Amino acid sequence: MKKRNLSLEEKNTSIRIKRNQIWRLFQFVRLNIKIHEEDPIFRKAKNNYQEKTKFFFSFLFKLAITTRFILLENGKIAGALSLEKKNNSIFVYAVGLLDGYKRKGYGTKLMNFTEDYATKKGRKFVNFSVLLENEPAIKLYEKLGYRSQGLGLTLIRYLLKDKEEIESQIKQTDNEKITFSLITNRNLIIRKAEFWWMKEIEVFAGKEAAQICKQDNLLNFDFKSHWEIYEIFYENTAIGLFAVLPSDLFPTIALFSDPKITWNIKWMDTFIYTLLNSSIDTQTNKKISNHLDSNNSFVIQIFLTHQHKDSLETKDNIVRFFHDQTEDRQIYFKKINIKSLKTNINS
Fold first, then answer.
1. Which residue segments constitute the domains of the chain, with CATH numbers given?
2. How many CB atoms lie within 10 A of CB 184?
């Protein structure tokens, strides 16, 4: 194979990945905030001084329990990487480059370094969360062999515009097919939510991806004690559950369910109309159907997995929901199978 001739700039560039020590943690936090300043979570933290301070120390605590590295170009800081050891994987908590050091192949170097680190630590997988609007990063990760677990939740606003039509649909819906049962045992709620969430991931990314999520505790949805949680039955068979979440604007639920039955627009329509016809109320003690406003329009917000949302989109279907993907994230993963290390992880 013909060797590529290095440019003068490449020959004279020294790249090094160095461990960040705990006494330089404050510097590392500030570096990461600068790198990720366009991330929606970081932007929100700038709203006021109190939020900014709270976020800074929360972020500092999280980074303190990770293994931290900086990437140096000719002795100058170019990027940062923080890794968290899980049971079966290395989770990339944060990775990025400063402006001026992008599109130089350093992102690939950091990911290769991470895979070698995972190998040395006896982990079989690398996982990380990525903002879906960050298309350049996703293209890089997919080029390196990473694929989505479809783990992240997204928010859709389901639109119903005409009150008379809604009432007509409620009457026509076979409400006996879908029924709801309140669950109050928190441990049972967590087990059932995990079961259905894993079913959804399994359909999208396979059993191995679902197992990683469970074993490495990536299925992290915090069910609050004051939320009402309902199990969903279809023809007397359990097919999922949903949580009623507090919301000032619209009725809001989080849905985890059986992909074989629920991942289609027809079932979703039936589910929504059954919900409207039920006695389930929101935090304001109003039936969900009472949120029909004076303009005879109705919106219900639903948190569900990305792949469930995608299954509701069809070319012939009238648009039923609005989806804002500004803050959407997904977990990407890769199984590591490296016989020899590509980087010096003791740098």
1. 12-151 (3.40.630.30), 153-327 (3.40.630)
2. 9
